[in-house]
Amino acid sequence: MRLKRIFQTLLGVALVHGLAAYAQEYPAKTVKLVVPYAAGGGGDIVARIVAEKLQAKWGQTVIVENRVGAGGNVGAEAAFRATPDGYTLLLTPQGPLVVNKALYPKLAFDPDAFLPVSLLAAAYGVLVVHPKVAATSVQQLIALARANPDRLNYASSGTGTTAHLAGELFKSAADIKLVHVPYKGTGPALTDLLAGQVDMMFAEVSAAGAHIRDGRLRALAVGSEKQNPLLPGVASLSDTVPGMVVMTWYGLVAPPGTPAAVVNKLVASIAEVMKQPDVIRRMQELSVVGIGNTPAEFALFMKQERERWGKVVRETGAKAE
């Protein structure tokens, strides 16, 4: 028995030293950030900023891989099933992490089992319409929709995304009927909106801002509680629909089973990156607020968001399409 205890102690010491050495060496090869939506959206832009800075810090290649489909579930499942060694991570808006569990009857992964790394950033949305839509305010849009039930449609970056649920919440609050047209990411949705194939969308300011400024899209309202300084003169959505705030956030998580030492190194690296002046500036230019909090803070935030969006899904009757 004494020899057995000695062996177990030595094994434990070796394991601790082994994990410590692994964390010191990490990353020793390419790190992949899986974004479960198409290129061009806010999450993809944030991922590429973070990837660039981590690559410079670590001296190792950091790539962004867009794995689209099923409202973000395809990419999330790929990251969930990846080897839990820190070399495949998931960087995503809230859909796969806190919304889809309420929206889909069954998932091939457990969102709650991901290991939180950090809440990276958050961004308010903006309600935009194609110029062909005969509305220059939210009030006019609501009146137009009421006069033409199910004739107007709204694009989203996928089922379960903020753009989708904001559209459903808007329909419910304004008592109007709109047709949902889901896409595999913000980029494809905006492409069709710009072409006039769809009528409107709740988009990230980071993705739609340039099109608003050049007149190719008309901004009716921002999703923040107050007017956004990047879109002067555009009203707040809550002025017409009290209490309605449209915000997308982007978080980084690791597959279940990833060593704590690796997660801790990721947390420290992310915190350093998000404090860099040029990252702060680039985020601000995109109308994105950089955050970079702790795993415990991110876990609590996701719990609250899960409850909030679950309530929206139940009350609006939103469904996976």
Write the layout of secondary structure elements.
Blueprint lengths: L1 H24 L5 E5 L6 H17 L3 E5 L6 H8 L7 E5 L1 H10 L11 E15 L8 H10 L5 E4 L5 H13 L4 E4 L3 H9 L5 E5 H9 L4 E5 L24 E8 L5 H15 L2 H9 L2 E3 L4 H22 L5
Parallel strand pairs: 1-2, 1-3, 5-6, 5-7
Antiparallel strand pairs: 3-9, 4-7, 4-8, 4-9, 4-10
Helix pairs in contact: 2-9, 4-11, 6-11
Explain what you see.
This protein is 45% helix and 18% strand. The chain has 321 residues and is of the alpha/beta class. Residues 13-18 have low confidence and may be disordered. The termini are far apart. It has two domains: 22-122 and 248-316, 3-Layer(aba) Sandwich (D-Maltodextrin-Binding Protein, domain 2), CATH 3.40.190.150; 124-239, D-Maltodextrin-Binding Protein, domain 2 (3-Layer(aba) Sandwich). It is built from eleven helices and ten strands. Strands 1, 2, 3, 4, 5, 6, 7, 8, 9 and 10 form a ten-stranded mixed beta sheet that branches. The protein has helices at 2-25, 42-58, 73-80, 94-103, 138-147, 162-174, 186-194, 205-213, 260-274, 277-285, 295-316, and strands at 31-35, 62-66, 88-92, 115-129, 153-156, 179-182, 200-204, 218-222, 247-254, 288-290. The relative contact order is 0.19. Helix 2 packs across helix 9.
Helix content: 40-55%
Give me the Rg, rounded: 21 Å
Which structural category do the helix and sheet elements fall into?
alpha/beta
Overall 3D shape: globular
Spans of at least 5 consecutive residues whose pLDDT stays below 50 are 13-18
The number of E-state strands comes to 10
How much is the average pLDDT?
Answer: 91
The CATH homologous superfamily of the largest domain is termed: Bordetella uptake gene, domain 1
Number of folding domains? 2
- The portion of residues forming beta strands comes to 15-25%
Taking the alpha carbons of the first and last residues, their distance comes to: 60 Å
Per the CATH scheme, the topology name of the largest domain is D-Maltodextrin-Binding Protein, domain 2
Which CATH architecture of the largest domain would you pick?
3-Layer(aba) Sandwich
Largest sheet: 10 strands, mixed
- SSE order: HEHEHEHEHEHEHEHEEHHEH
Number of helices: 11
For the record, what CATH class of the largest domain applies? Alpha Beta
